[in-house]
Every structure is written in structure tokens, then in C-alpha cells.
UniProtKB/TrEMBL annotation:
Keyword line: Transferase
Enzyme category, top tier: isomerase
InterPro entries in UniProt: Aldolase_TIM, Chorismate_II_sf, Class-I_DAHP_synthase, CM_dom_sf, CM_II_prokaryot, DAHP1/KDSA
PANTHER family for this protein: PHOSPHO-2-DEHYDRO-3-DEOXYHEPTONATE ALDOLASE (PTHR43018), PROTEIN AROA(G) (PTHR43018:SF1)
Enzyme Commission number: 5.4.99.5
SMART domains: CM_2
Annotated ranges, domain Chorismate mutase: 268-359
Top-level taxon of the source organism: Bacteria
PROSITE patterns (UniProt xref): CHORISMATE_MUT_2 (PS51168)
GO molecular function: chorismate mutase activity; transferase activity
Record's protein name: chorismate mutase
Gene Ontology terms describing biological process: chorismate metabolic process
Species: Salinivirga cyanobacteriivorans
Length: 378
């Protein structure tokens, strides 16, 4: 459901370049003044107008490089002065916000570990009160769209009207090709709830390695994201943090050139074919619903049968047969096993719900009987 926030559209954010995709790039961490300046100069030469660098780095375990801290702020001011780029840094507490605002930092972003914590978000929101600075909120580490929306609402309540979201993927216990699993349905849900909020994708943190950056960025563009935040470093292999996911400004340029930027509704394209295909999809969706309804009617009948014969609703071996057979049938139809599993699990759950309703009619009877007993002993 759509929520109303008081926000400025991104083309009114006073950024130099608001052409889609807006690119924010720079090193994971500011390491030395020289590394910051060399990276920034190359990026600026290639037309990048927003420079990012972490100076306070929240790390998973103590002992890894935790950022240079406030001494990096003058380096970033120098980038701004020499290249004219806007500067973005991460803030994780009230002190960071204060120092960043005093240093004239142009854009603040809030990291995934911070946005997962409503206390930390409130502290930052309080520190931002009355400031006029764009704030980008990364998704919380856990795949919870409401927590992400809540973090954005807190910042908006502090009077910040230039707010963006950054999709950086989600922690997962399962093995995956990604460092952080994208769960694309979560930023899509964010867009449904907060359509006014521009969304940036951070392929560096999703991928965790260079090879995946292009495909993730292309996917973000095809999902109509507004921009990309990509880590770049003048000497990525020797970066002090997240070396595997950083690329040189030159590689970034090549990667960005390779992206195909598609439009939601390109001008001058006849929509007749699309409308015809959508008409046919609508027809099939109707048939799909009719078939599911018929299946649930049968499940309800089975529920009555089980009730009469005192059988449990869940029949594990029958359910496993159905799932196994349909995964195989799905493969022949080029439907992924993941999809078939999700679809049949949802159908099975609804079927169980229908049968539970049938079983519970007995409870109503039992309740009536109970009331009769109570009356009888009065
Ligand atoms: C419908 C039944 O009940 C449950 C629901 C199933 C289904 O919807 O296909 C399958 C097995 C049971 O867990 C059944 O026993 O056949």
C-alpha cells in the first residue's frame, strides 16, 4: 500500500547530473589523501559527478580496517574543491552526522547495519533535524521491507525531504553466488509503498566480486532503478577493505558504457503488440484463478471426508509426491524448481487452510455442546 511522505523528486535535488542512471562512485574506504585524489580525478574525468568514500567503516569483526575517521574529511573537501564533485559518506551515529554537516558533505548515507536498528535510526534522525541534506538509506541487513520503510520515515519526520534508498542485498545463511542476496522483491515492495523514493542499486555489496557487477547493474536498470552506487579504487587489488568488489575508474567507465538503459514507456513505440500480449495474459490469469478455485473446492471435499474418517489434514507422503512430480513436470516446461516449489507450497498452504476451516466447524459444534452442558448444570 502506498504511503505519503513529504519528499522532493530527485530531479530537484540540485545534483549536477540527474540523467538515469545517476552514478555514485568512489572507494569503499578513504585510505590516504593520494588514493582519494587519484580515484576522484579519474572518476571526474569520466563524467562521474558524485564521489563516495567511507571514513567510518562498520566491520563485521574487530581488527579489520575501521576507516581513517575524521582525518579523511579534509581530503574529501579537497575532492569537492578540485573536481566540483558532490561528496557522499556513510554516517552511523549522531557524532558522524554532526561532523559530516560541519565539513559540508553533500550527501549522507546510512548503512545496512544501522538501518536495521530503530534506536540508531532515531538517533541519526534527531541529529539531522533541521539540516538540509540528501540522505540515502541502505536496506537493513535482514530482508524486511517494513523496517526499511520505517527507517526512511524516521528520516523524513526529521524534516529531510531529499531521501533515496540504496539496495545493497541481504545477509543470508545459505550459500549463494552473492555476498548479499539481492531478494529483488524487497526493493520492488519498497517502490510500491514509497513510489516517490528514488532507488539506487549497490551492485558492489550484492556481488562481493567484480565479475557480477555488470549483470546486477543491468538487472537494476531493467527494474527501473534510478541510479547505481558502485565502488571504485585507483588500485583495487590493494584496497584496505573489500578489495574483490572494487574496480578501477576505467573499468567502471567500460562497464557503464555496456549497460542498456531501457525506458518504462519509450516515446514513439506503438503499444498495440504489448496490449495484445497483456490481454492474453489477463485471460490466462482468469483461467488460472478458475482452476485454483476448482482445486480448492476438491480440497474442501477432502476436508469433509477426513473429518468424517478422523484423518489428519497433512498427508506428508501425498504432499511430497505432488511436489516431486510437479517439479519434474515443471522442468520439462522450462519452469524453475524454485518457482514450482514456491507456487505449490502456497497452494498446499491454502488447501490446508480450507481443510482447517472444515475441521473447525466441529469446534463450533463442540462449543455449542459445551454451552448446552453449562446451561444444563446451572
Ligand atoms: C488435499 C489433501 O490434503 C493436504 C493437501 C494436499 C493438496 O492440496 O494437494 C495434499 C496433501 C495433504 O497434505 C490430501 O490429503 O489429498
Amino acid at each position: 500500500m502506498e504511503k505519503q511522505l513529504n519528499l522532493l523528486p530527485i530531479n530537484q535535488w540540485n545534483l549536477a547530473d540527474t540523467k538515469k542512471p545517476i552514478i555514485i562512485s568512489g572507494p569503499c574506504s578513504a585510505e590516504t589523501e593520494e588514493q582519494v585524489m587519484t580515484t576522484a580525478r579519474s572518476l571526474s574525468k569520466n563524467g562521474i559527478t558524485v564521489f563516495r568514500a567511507g571514513i567510518w567503516k562498520p566491520r563485521t569483526r574487530p581488527g579489520s580496517f575501521e576507516g581513517v575517521g575524521s582525518i579523511g574529511l579534509p581530503w574529501l573537501k579537497r575532492v569537492k574543491k578540485e573536481t566540483g564533485m558532490h561528496i557522499a559518506i556513510e554516517v552511523a551515529n549522531a557524532m558522524h552526522v554532526k561532523e559530516a554537516l560541519e565539513a559540508g558533505i553533500d550527501i549522507l548515507w546510512i548503512g545496512a547495519r544501522t538501518s536495521a536498528n530503530p534506536f540508531a535510526m532515531q538517533e541519526i534522525a534527531d541529529a539531522l533535524n533541521g539540516a538540509d541534506v540528501p540522505v540515502l538509506v541502505k536496506n537493513p541487513v535482514n530482508p524486511d521491507a517494513d523496517l526499511w520503510v520505517g527507517a526512511i520515515e524516521r528520516i523524513n519526520k526529521a524534516g529531510i525531504t531529499r531521501i533515496g534508498a540504496i539496495h545493497r542485498g541481504f545477509s543470508s545463511y545459505d550459500r549463494s553466488i552473492y555476498r548479499n542476496v539481492p531478494h529483488w522483491q524487497i526493493p520492488i515492495e519498497l517502490r510500491s509503498q514509497l513510489p516517490q523514493v528514488p532507488i539506487f542499486c549497490d551492485p558492489s555489496h550484492i556481488a562481493g566480486r567484480r565479475e557480477l557487477l555488470q549483470s546486477i547493474s543491468q538487472k537494476a536498470m531493467d527494474l527501473d532503478f534510478d541510479g547505481l552506487m558502485i565502488e571504485s579504487h585507483c588500485n583495487p587489488d590493494n584496497a584496505w577493505s573489500d578489495a574483490k568488489q572494487q574496480i578501477t575508474p576505467e573499468s567502471l567507465d567500460i562497464m557503464l558504457e555496456s549497460l542498456i538503459i531501457r525506458k518504462m514507456n519509450p516515446e514513439g513505440v506503438s503499444l498495440n503488440t504489448l496490449e495484445d500480449l497483456r490481454f492474453r495474459i489477463d485471460k490466462l490469469d482468469n483461467e488460472l484463478l478458475d482452476i485454483i478455485q476448482k482445486r480448492m473446492t476438491l480440497a474442501t471435499e477432502i476436508g469433509h471426508y477426513k473429518k468424517q474418517n478422523n484423518m489428519t489434514i497433512l498427508q506428508q507422503s501425498r504432499w511430497e509426491d505432488i511436489l516431486g512430480t510437479n517439479i519434474k513436470k515443471g522442468e520439462k516446461r522450462e519452469l524453475s524448481s524454485g518457482f514450482i516449489m514456491k507456487m505449490f507450497k502456497a497452494i498446499h498452504q491454502e488447501s490446508i487452510n480450507k481443510q482447517t476451516r472444515v475441521m473447525n466447524e466441529k469446534h463450533t459444534l463442540a462449543k455449542n455442546k459445551n454451552e448446552q452442558i453449562i446451561k444444563a448444570v446451572k
